[in-house]
Amino acid sequence: MELNELYSEVIKEHSISGHNKKHLPYATIVAPGRNPSCGDEIELELQMENGIIKDSAFTGVGCAISQASISIMIDLVRGRTAQDARRLAELFLKMALRQPLLPDELQELEDAAALQNISDMPARVKCATMPWHTLLKALDSI
Ligand SMILES: [Zn+2]
To answer: Which residue intervals define the domain NIF system FeS cluster assembly NifU N-terminal in the entry (predicted)?
Structure first.
C-alpha cells in the first residue's frame, strides 16, 4: 500500500467512525469552530481537570476532511496537559502551512500526520486547520 493510500485510509476511518462525535457529560469548555468557505461548523468540548484534557468530543457538521481532522486531534490530545496540546496544535498548523517539521515532530503528530498533504490542496487547508484553531482558542479561555 502506498503511503498516500494509507493516509487516506486514516482520514476515511476517522471521518466515518464517529467515536469522538458526541456530547461530554462533564464538559468544562465548549468552543465553536467555523469554516464558512466550506460550511464546516463544529463545537469542540473539553473536560479539563487539573490542567489536563481528561476528555474531549465534538458535535457538528462538515466535510470529511474537517470531521477527520477534529477526530484525529481529539484522539491525540486526550489525556495531555493543556501545554502539550497547545504545542501539538502549533506543530499541526505549521505542517498544514508547509513549514518543515523535524521527523520527530512529525512523529509526535501520530495520525494527524496523515493530513500532511493537505498543504497541496489550498482550498481544503482551512477544513483541516479549523479544529486546531478552535482547540487553541478553547485553551486560551482557561
Ligand atoms: Zn470542509
So the answer is: 7-127
Q: How large is the average pLDDT for residues 86-103? A: 95
Q: Round to whole Å and give the CA distance between 84 and 62.
A: 27
Residue 88 is predicted with a pLDDT of 98
- Tell me the per-residue pLDDT of 34-63, one tens digit each, with 9 for 90 and over: 999 999 999 999 999 999 999 999 999 999
Residue 2: pLDDT band by 50, 70, 90 thresholds? low
46 - beta bridge partners?
Answer: 29, 56
Distance from Cα 50 to the centre of ligand 1, integer Å: 33
- CA 49–ligand 1 middle distance (angstroms): 31
Q: Give the number of other CB atoms < 10 A from CB of residue 25.
A: 9
Neighbours of ion ligand 1 (CB under 5 A): 38, 40, 63, 66, 127
Largest CA distance in the chain: 43
Domain segments of the chain: what residues?
A: 3-140
| End-to-end Cα spacing for the chain | 43
Ligand 1 center from residue 25 Cα (angstroms): 27
